Amino acid sequence: MLSTLNKEVSGMTKRVFCISLCCLIICSFAMGAEKEGFKIGMTVSMTGPFSQEVGPFKDLIKAWESRVNQKGGINIGGKSYNIEVIVYDDRSDQNTARTSYERLIRTEKVNMLLGPYSSPLTFAASIAAEENKIPFLAICGNSQKIYERDFKWLLGILDLAPSYTKHYWNLIKHENFIKTVAFVVEDSMHPKSVYAGAKELASNYGFNIIHEDIVSSDTQDFSGLILKLKNQKADLIFVSANVHFASAFMRQAKEKGLEAKEFHCIHHSGVFKKAVGDFAENVVGQMYWVKGMKTTDSEEFSLLLKQAKVDPYDYPWAAAYFAAFQTVEQALKQSPGISNQNILDSLKSQEYDTICGKNSFEAKGHGKINPMPAQIQEGTYQILWPKSVATSQHKYRSPKG
Questions:
Q1: Are residues 92 and 44 in the same domain?
Q2: Confidence (pLDDT) at 135
Q3: One domain for residues 378 and 262
Q4: Residue 214 domain-assigned (yes or no)
Q5: Quick check: is 171 in a domain?
Q6: Are 49 and 64 in a shared domain?
Q7: Quick one: pLDDT at residue 400?
């Protein structure tokens, strides 16, 4: 009986040993099969003035990260990686942006960087990338000053700011209704760069520029300026400004009875529309995408917007961010490895299919994407031009005649 018991114990011991060994093998295999991470660093203006433009974009970024990883990650040089996007709040401040990107590089050890919102923040943040030789893809920074420095590690998806409104000027030249133009310009990097290009386009197309005024970003009272504009009676009042400035100007324009055949506010998002109220009806501005447009991965973009609870009309720059995500995915899939130079070379060498159209990088580093003129019509946004993508006809505030 004792002999039999010993045999049973011995058998149990062997079975336990075999099961333990199998578990160890399985665990070791699983650990070995776990994907490495590819780190992307960036900031979002979750607080400060620019939060009106991109405040909830961390949720959009994380929704993209999740969807990429759910689909198996990204294959880079024959190896599969999960992406990890590390996002800091830059507080809409240049110094905070630069120190945040330095921290992303030195502490988080990121593999590449995506830019912040706005030209001033992009200008500051890209210095950290250049000094540390980290690939930096700008999203919403397109001032010429950013690219005049000939940085090696800097690329951007957008065309330069002077081309920002080229489709709009082509549209109103084609319609031949506007004759005189007044420019109201916020004294900030991006608005001034857009204004410089718009003024040149207006002049080249033969429009009569009857007023130009560059106004401090912190202006609270526009009454003197509005009085001058009322006296000059320009057909088009072109407001080159960020949302907070444009909203304040337009609210006072309504209160003081300023009218024109057209108001063009380059940034006229849902935040602007809500702030200005019914006076925002028929205001024209710039957008990269509206609902119903059939462009590359529109359905995927719509799913991300839904998951992140981001309204593309309240935050129209979401389309530019998605175009950057598409660019990153396509570049990484073609890269032979994850070294900084591999990533940079891959980014530079391709043409990209994005929700904003075909894109590639010019020698200076900037891209070719430009927004299209979009008008607020019955509370929603409609693309006016080019004809190939227009979703509605242009409506002036006073009838043609």
A1: yes
A2: 98
A3: yes
A4: yes
A5: yes
A6: yes
A7: 58
CATH number at residue 90: 3.40.50.2300
Give the H or E element holding residue 304. helix 298-308
DSSP labels, 253-291: HHHTT---SEEEES---HHHHHHHGGGGTT-EEEES--T
What is d(CA 372, CA 356) in angstroms, rounded to the nearest whole number? 10
Give the CA angle between residues 394, 395, 396 to the nearest 5°: 120
221 and 329 in a single domain? The answer is no
Residues 246 and 342 in one domain: no
Q: For residue 395, is it within any domain?
A: no
Per-residue pLDDT of 1-21, as tens digits, reads 445 444 454 554 555 444 444
Mean pLDDT on 67-88: 97
Residue 205 domain boundaries: 163-290+374-383
List, as one string, the DSSP characters of 118-137.
Answer: SHHHHHHHHHHHHHHT--EE
β-sheet bridge partners, residue 81:
36, 74
First to last CA, the chain: 114
The C-alpha torsion from 305 through 310 and 313 to 317, rounded to 10°, is: -80
Q: Which residue has the tokens 């002077």?
A: 162
| Residue 382 to residues 127, 167, 301, 386, 389, Cα–Cα distance (Å) | 37, 14, 18, 12, 10
Same domain, 183 and 126: no
Same structural domain for residues 199 and 248? Answer: yes
How many domains would you assign to the chain? 2
Tell me the C-alpha to C-alpha distance, in Å, between residue 389 and each of 313, 370, 393.
17, 13, 11
Distance, in Å, from the CA atom of 361 to the CA atom of 156, rounded to the nearest integer, reads: 7
Average pLDDT, the chain: 92
Does the CA dihedral 245-380-194-296 come out positive or negative?
A: positive
Inside any domain, residue 21: no
Q: What is the DSSP letter of 233?
A: T
- Amino acid, res. 124: A
Q: What's 162's DSSP letter?
A: G
Residues 313 and 333 in one domain: yes
Q: Tens of pLDDT along 213-254?
A: 999 999 999 999 999 999 999 999 999 999 999 999 999 999
CB 110 within 8 A of CB 40: yes
- In 3D space, the residue among 218, 283, 272 whose CA is nearest the CA of residue 247 turns out to be 272
Per residue in 31-42, pLDDT tens?
Answer: 445 678 999 999
Lowest average pLDDT, out of 171-180, 307-316, 374-383, 392-401, goes to: 392-401
> CB 19: neighbour CB atoms within 10 A?
10
